[in-house]
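We were asked to recover a plausible sequence for a given structure. The inputs and outputs are reproduced exactly as logged, with field labels preserved.

PROBLEM: sequence recovery
POSITIONS: 211
GIVEN STRUCTURE:
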């Protein structure tokens, strides 16, 4: 999204310049969720799960396929996991703002409370508008790096099978037990197949977007 900014450290500095005390990368939260997901798959007892870090997919299942709600993997989204982490590290009185490409997260974020609560959500478009309103550019800031904790491979999660790659989950078509689907058509078809009596006997990893 921000390919016009020449160095990610400038991007972090620009966000700080808007008044944020800490700037942390959601990748660490992805790592935490991905490891829990891998542990769940390794402890398989016959129940198949729909896993997603994508708010529109979870919302679709809850609203239009309520019989499958029990099959949603029981994990909070990575950004909520990250909110819990930063409050533990930096104090429970923090105001947490999640910056994302996903406008659907604005509704999703309202459902989490206590240490996982999200106090504000900005889309990338809104972040650009704030940079413009406050005259913040990469030319008037110095380098600044993300605050800890630092993620491992969690930055892969927006791409197809990224969550699986983050913790080296088996993705072989013949020996693996996960189907990954991106895009509105593919994810709807996967859920339809999952529901059938003779349908998919595999876990689903779904994104509404193309990544």
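RECOVERED SEQUENCE:
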């Amino acid at each position: 999204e921000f390919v016009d900014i020449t160095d990610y450290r400038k991007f972090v500095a620009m966000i700080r310049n808007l008044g944020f005390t800490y700037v942390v990368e959601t990748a660490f939260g992805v790592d935490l969720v991905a490891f829990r997901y891998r542990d769940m798959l390794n402890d398989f007892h016959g129940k198949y799960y729909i896993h997603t870090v994508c708010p529109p997919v979870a919302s679709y299942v809850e609203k239009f396929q309520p019989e499958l709600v029990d099959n949603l993997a029981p994990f909070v989204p990575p950004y909520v996991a990250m909110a819990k982490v930063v409050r533990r590290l930096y104090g429970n009185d923090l105001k947490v703002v999640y910056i994302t490409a996903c406008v659907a997260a604005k509704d999703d974020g309202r459902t989490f409370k206590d240490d996982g609560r999200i106090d504000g959500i900005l889309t990338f478009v809104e972040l650009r508008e704030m940079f413009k309103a406050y005259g913040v550019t990469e030319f008037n800031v110095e380098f600044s790096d993300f605050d800890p904790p630092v993620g491992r491979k969690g930055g892969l999660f927006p791409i197809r099978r990224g969550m699986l790659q983050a913790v080296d989950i088996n993705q072989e078509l013949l020996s693996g037990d996960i189907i990954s689907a991106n895009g509105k058509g593919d994810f709807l078809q996967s859920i339809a197949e999952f529901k059938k009596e003779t349908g998919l006997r595999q876990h689903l990893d779904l994104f509404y977007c193309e990544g």
